[in-house]
Amino acid sequence: MSECIFCKIASGEIPADFVYRNEKVFVIRDITPQAPTHLLVIPTQHVASAAEVSDPAVWAAVMEQATEAARFLNLTEGYRMVINTGAQSGQTVPHLHLHLLSGRVFDWPPG
Ligand code: 5GP
Ligand code: ZN
Question: Which of 5, 60, 79, 111 is buried most deeply by CB count within 10 Å?
């Protein structure tokens, strides 16, 4: 997807702070962090949102890497995973991504 920010990050056209990457997924630090730790786990393949995933391997790669990143960063006090899906949820980038947030207390219910 030529105009997609996360596809441009995947290709190197836009720079990002990569925490991890393999051929299926990459992990970057959010440019506007909402917590002391705020990572984005993003499939390399363009999928517009969670609602558009057709290949379960995409979920496997995203969830596996999210839990692996939490382990690697030793987020033992807890963390929150968020996948905004669609305009009303707050999704602003139409390329599937999981937010991994940690380092503070999170309210429930979420805003
Ligand atoms: P959404 O609102 O779609 O759930 O999340 C999109 C996230 O992507 C936001 O938290 C936003 O700060 C982050 N973001 C948008 N553009 C960039 C960028 O160019 N680089 C990085 N690292 N994060 C970005
Ligand atoms: Zn994309």
Answer: 79
